Amino acid sequence: MIQIPTISTPRLTLRPIEARDFASFTAFFASERSKFVGGPMSTEQSWRALATELGHWQLRGFGRWAVEESETGEFAGIIGPWFPHGWPEPELGWDLMNGFEGKGYATEAALASREYAYDTLGWKTAISLVAPENHGSRNVAKRMGATYEGIYEHERHGALEIWRHPSPDDLAAGGMEAYA
Known about the structure:
Elements: E1 7-8, E2 12-15, H1 22-30, H2 43-60, E3 65-69, E4 75-82, E5 91-96, H3 105-119, E6 127-130, H4 135-143, E7 147-154, E8 158-164, H5 168-174
Antiparallel strand pairs: 1-2, 2-3, 3-4, 4-5, 6-8, 7-8
């Protein structure tokens, strides 16, 4: 059984997913906001999606964390590195639960997860896949210094934009500010 690490940022805690996250997860995936990431879906489908997040850690040795507000302990999203079957290459992905968008949480947690992917996992590059109509997610990718690279046709999600993150070498040479 893999031990999922916990990471802290100034406002957030990235921790293992727990059963207590299921109600918020289900509410998000029942809402129209989930349309860019495979929803809306039923409670049963949400359960399977949440279990997939945990199972990814076991199968790949890494995955997305539950993100909670450190101050309140509220579950705010699922963010981190992952590479499920059917993806073109390893990705940094983010899904914010209802009511947590617009606070900079996705960027803050995704930057911490990118640092983990590069420094701990040894990734040399990363992408983020963004639905073309998902302007909020595209803005997160841009704030992280990612650049648009093209379109990937996913068998279930359809056309997705590929956003390439600066490599560890690029970040070391000029920092993210050089790409933002």
